[in-house]
Design a protein that fits this description.
InterPro entries: DUF3389 (IPR021811). It holds the Pfam family DUF3389. Keywords: Sugar transport, Transport. This is PTS sugar transporter subunit IIA. By secondary structure, this protein is mainly β. The protein has one domain (about 1-75). The protein contains one helix and eight strands. It has one helix at about 60-70; strands at about 1-5, 10, 15-20, 30, 35-40, 45-50, 55-60, 75. The chain has a four-stranded antiparallel sheet with strand order 1-2-3-4, with helices on one face. Strand 6 (about 45-50) and strand 7 (about 55-60) form a beta hairpin. The chain is globular and about 35 Å long. It starts with a strand and ends with a strand.
Length: about 80
């Protein structure tokens, strides 16, 4: 599933989350779903901490976070 937000797009499935940021640098962030955490309560942040990875991205709104949670089968913390 693909979710478009103001800074780029999220491509997600039950196994991994890939975030492609727009701009000339074309940054791509990738992590296993097991290494990710979804933080709600107005923060609307996707974080990934694991073996060699450590990043976070703020989404535009809670609807995007809820859609991502449904796509990957994760609960939202907070």
């Amino acid at each position: 599933m693909t979710i478009v937000f103001s800074q780029g797009r999220i491509i997600a499935n039950q196994h991994e989350i890939v975030i492609r940021l727009d701009g000339s640098s074309r940054v791509t962030l990738q992590a296993s779903v097991d290494d990710c955490r979804l933080i709600g309560k107005g923060a609307n942040v996707v974080t990934a901490v694991g073996s060699g990875i450590n990043w976070s991205v703020k989404l535009d709104d809670e609807n995007q976070l809820q859609q991502l949670a449904a796509d990957v089968g994760m609960a939202i913390d907070g």
